[in-house]
Design a protein that fits this description.
About 30% of the residues lie in helices and about 15% in strands. With about 190 residues, the chain is α+β, with helices and mostly antiparallel strands. It has a 4-stranded mixed beta sheet. Strands 5-6 form a two-stranded antiparallel sheet. The radius of gyration is 20 Å and the shape is elongated. It holds the Pfam family HNH_5.
Length: about 190
């Protein structure tokens, strides 16, 4: 089970492997947000057998300044934004391609607004034509993946995302309902 590292301001910073957690703990750089998890980890470390079955969230003791970086429309980022779902037919798959809404052969660029995840069938059907030429429609309009949203690289770790959302609700004094949000916290 990966470990979520939060800044001292509770902003998600990264997801790290269990081994990195041991290093951060030994250098006294983090604290646990859940006392029960802390006890389990300490017992596991004493037994020299760290096997995490529950999501682990730790908070840095010192704030780390995170530079703002413009995210690029890479294949990984497009698939993350589109939730590994074909934006034409809605098929979910890990075996998706990218499609240029306005084909490159017609001047389309490789931008956030012009790239979507697409299954091979729909990509073949559309080819280098415009959507109206093949009577196809987008499920949702593509837009740039912002850094705050991408901070939810947690999308790749649904159990960590749920644990983080519940932690935030608890920290705000709100009861912990089950969160069924598709993409994590709403803006």
């Amino acid at each position: 089970m990966p470990v979520l590292v939060l800044n001292s301001s509770l902003q998600p910073l990264s997801v790290i492997p269990e081994r990195r957690l041991i290093v951060l703990l030994s250098k006294q750089k983090v604290t646990f947000v859940d006392e029960n998890v802390r006890e389990l980890i300490e017992e596991s470390i004493q037994l020299r057998r760290l096997e995490l079955e529950r999501p682990v969230i730790v908070q840095l003791l010192a704030n780390v300044r995170v530079p703002r970086v413009a995210l690029q429309p890479t294949r990984t980022n497009i698939l993350l934004r589109d939730d590994e779902t074909c934006q034409y037919c809605g098929k979910r798959s890990r075996d998706l391609t990218l499609d240029h809404i306005i084909p490159r052969s017609r001047g389309g660029q490789s931008t956030w607004e012009n790239l979507v995840a697409c299954c091979k069938h729909c990509n073949g059907k559309k080819g280098n034509r415009l959507l109206k030429e093949v009577n196809m429609h987008l499920l949702r309009q593509p837009r740039a993946l912002t850094q705050e949203y991408a901070g939810f690289f947690l999308l790749r770790y649904p159990k960590l995302r749920e644990a983080y959302e519940q932690f935030l609700l608890t920290a705000m004094g709100t009861p912990m309902p089950q969160v069924h949000s598709k993409h994590g916290l709403s803006a």
